[in-house]
Amino acid sequence: MPVDIEALYPKLIHLMMDAVFVVDADNQIVFVSDACEALLGYRAEELVGTPITDYMHPDDLRATRDSIVRVMSGQSHSDFHNRYIRKDGSIVDILWSARWSEEDGVRIGVARDVTALRLAEDKLRFLAHHDPLTGLTNRSLFSDRLDLALRAAHRHQSKLALLFLDVNGFKSINDSLGHAMGDRMLCTIARRLESCVRETDTVARVGGDEFIVLLTDIQSADAVSMKVGEIAAILAEPLGAEFGGLKTASCSIGVACYPADGADADTLLRHADDDMYRLKRRRS
User: Fold this and answer.
1) Domains in the chain, number
2) Known catalytic residue: 209?
3) Where among 53, 88, 119 does a domain terminate?
4) What is the per-residue pLDDT across 1-27, written as a single tens digit (0 to 9) for each?
5) Which of 209, 217, 261, 275 is catalytic?
6) Per the domain annotation, does 21 fall within a domain?
7) Do 151 and 271 share a domain, yes or no?
8) 11 in a domain, yes or no?
9) pLDDT digits (tens, 9 = 90+) for 203-212
10) What is the pTM of this model?
11) Which of 2, 130, 248, 254 could serve as 272's disulfide partner, Cβ 3.0–4.6 Å?
């Protein structure tokens, strides 16, 4: 007995893990497959007869309308990405393949949930430029920002400062209390450093217990000294009960200023590093 393939089409469509949408020229939904409920949280009867634009993320409306115009002019899309708002208010990232059926007067679209993929891609992009433990800028991104800041300082005849910080006694913390406690200490220091700089400044973790702070558009050497004192005071604030017997944290802070201590990144970093170690030797 021959199989009626056309009769199987509706069943096949509803078996698809991707959602199928059919939308008319006025953006009214005329059909959705069963997979749409998993995608958007709405049953088919809730969606049919409503404008598909009602469910789009408002920030993506303009780009989506432009895409609709292109599809309806005959340019099929196989990789258009936008965001929709689910019934529960959460946001889903969708990858679309769509075409216009002139004879039927409808757009046919297949929607795939790529939210998990987008989150993974965002995380990879973040980790490429940030320290995975503290979330601070890493050495690579810091170098780029320092180069840009030096160019701007040279162009505008302004000043900047580098603060090189090393945690005092960090090895003994790791050795006596464990690496988990050491990691907690580093994260606490990171958050405290972030709390006392401006959005235009940069805090980076560049080594095990080493941090650098880039201060841009500095007005005077006194302003740098005041910022160093502020950072030292914030770092010296009492630690929480989760640190057990550890009461406070402290860092040795070396300073280098542009242009007084150097005109290029390597010279400034070396000067700040030397200054930090000089202070560290003085403590011992």
Assistant:
1) 2
2) yes
3) 119
4) 665 556 666 777 888 889 999 999 999
5) 209
6) yes
7) yes
8) yes
9) 999 989 999 9
10) 0.77
11) 254
